[in-house]
Amino acid sequence: MKLKHYIFIGALLIIIPFLIAQVAKEKAALQEPAPKAAVQPKPVNPVLAEVLRDYEEQLKVLAEASGTPGAAIAVVQDSTIVFLKGMGRRSADAPQPVDVNTLFRIASVSKCFASFLTGILVQDSVLHWNDRIVDRLPHFALNSPEETQKLTIRHVLSHTTGLPYHTYTNMVEEGKPLDSMLSWLKRIPLSSPVGETYSYQNVAYSLIGRVIESATGKSYEDEMRQRVFGPLHMLTASIDYAGIQQSTNLAKPHKRRGNQWVPAAITSTYYNVAPAGGVNASISDMAQWMIALLGNRPDVISRETLKQLYSPEVKARSKNRNYGRMHRLSDSFYGLGWRVIYYPDDTLLYHGGYVNGYRSEVAVNPKDHLAVCILANAPGDLADNGIPLFFNLLQPKRDSVRAWEEKERKLRQQILVP
Q1: Count of CB atoms within 10 A of residue 317's CB?
Q2: What is the C-alpha separation between 344 and 196, in angstroms, rounded?
Q3: 416 located within any domain
Q4: How confident is the model over 327-366, as pLDDT tens digits?
Q5: Burial per residue of 232-259, b for 16 or more beta-carbon CB atoms within 10 angstroms, e otherwise
Q6: DSSP for residue 89
Q7: Is residue 126 part of a domain?
Q8: How far is CA 307 from the centre of its chain?
Q9: Containing domain of residue 213, as a range?
Q10: Are 239 and 274 in contact (CB under 8 A)?
Q11: Which of 207, 221, 27 is nearest to 133 (CA)?
Q12: Whole-prediction pTM value?
């Protein structure tokens, strides 16, 4: 056989399989169903949109009056982010604006994340709310051996450890290691029996981090990243000093000097008690988390677990007095990492935080399926009043907001039913 025949046959062996593959591909394409139309976004509630327009204008007035250098605000309705804004500047001495991805320290709102992570582990049967601390940490001790045996995860997360108010918080600010501070708790006489009295803690609250590490074999920080930040797409969130140092879009903290706010250094304090105050996040991160707090991420945390976090455990005074001025308070409690405020016809869950010149507030209204968060790079009226301001503006229009929502719900049902 001549060389040209071999070449011809070789070419056919290459071309024929290619042609067969192309024909098969075209046939498959013809049989493939047409792509589905994109899911239509949920219509914007026009009454709520009006409230949000008023809210934005009044936030600007409040920010200017308080002189707050920069802040970021999010409002979530059910699974929809309806308001997401950055305001002001990252630093009083620089022009860069705060945007929705600017990183802040969220201070004691980190406690809500600690209980959130614990709830995930409880629903996965890794932990249980009434697990005794000594069963996970055999060497841990309070001043009383009898009370040590009673202490559970539930007591830690509800601040009912029996320890005096803010035990060793001064040591936290001095940068002492967590394990040392936990070992020193046995020196402190208890102010009440375990489980009876609310007494806010940072060191004792951070026991939950060591419990989680004992139960999972992983660091608390890794568990938070893998079970919370990652699944919720909290893309800029972190839980250590390095995380905030490495950010290129960072709000600087501020302190008061005379009549003006001046930038301050970011310190490493409270990262030594990460469950109590170590989370860094942007308002975009917080909005994704609030969607989960409203029960819309059952793949991460169930509504039943959220109810457990939000249930009152012990009577506790409302920390931010502006929530009491908003409407007449019926009562106030602390749940598992959350403050629980009862009004005559409503319930609000909230937590606030302050550390190193940063201020944070988050609130959840389960009845109206709304959540609001404010992050600020200075304390003051904007952070203190920003969330009560929203609910005050909403209050006279709540019935109209609900009526529109009910009308839309019935309309969707009619469309779905043939």
Answers
A1: 12
A2: 26
A3: no
A4: 777 899 999 999 999 988 899 999 999 999 999 999 999 9
A5: bebebbbbebebbeebeebbbbbeeeee
A6: B
A7: yes
A8: 16
A9: 46-78+97-409
A10: yes
A11: 207
A12: 0.88
